[in-house]
Amino acid sequence: MRDSRPQSLDLLLFENQPENAATAGKSPLQAIQRHAIALLKLNRAVLSLLPGQVRPWCRVANYRKHILVLETGNASWKTRLYYEIPVLLSALRSEILPSLSSIDIRINPSLMVKSHNNEQSVEKISERKLNNDSQSLPTRQLSHESAETLMALAERSPEKLKRRLERLAALAGESTSAAKMKRQR
Region (Disordered) spans which residues (predicted)? Predict the structure, then answer.
């Protein structure tokens, strides 16, 4: 069980005084900061070794007891990463972590949400570019035959689908009302 007694903020926030050389540089927050910096460097190294399509869906979660813990967004990316483990192990052992014994892969769904939000923002940017370009493109029109086919289909469809098909057929303009008039006769 951990020591849960109150501690001075000086012990947590600041490096211990150099008078005591045995405890110098061992404050808990500094140890956490050093570990976080090491994980960021390790993350960059691991991502550089992975194939391009896997990189956005993977990150280093931790390194402890000679085991590298990777996180991925879902089970399909986890499976894809399993195929990369032998290459990662040999590259990391030879270049960065000679004491690395294994790689553990865990699923973290929040990676998918974050990546999905990034994809949506990229899609919005590309939509804006497309909208600016679409002003110069010719507009599409629904043919008269297509409108008549949609109206015939709408007659045999449930009410909700019927309304939608009629609205879609209305995009053909005058031909839709002409098609309705032909059927009413």
Answer: 118-142
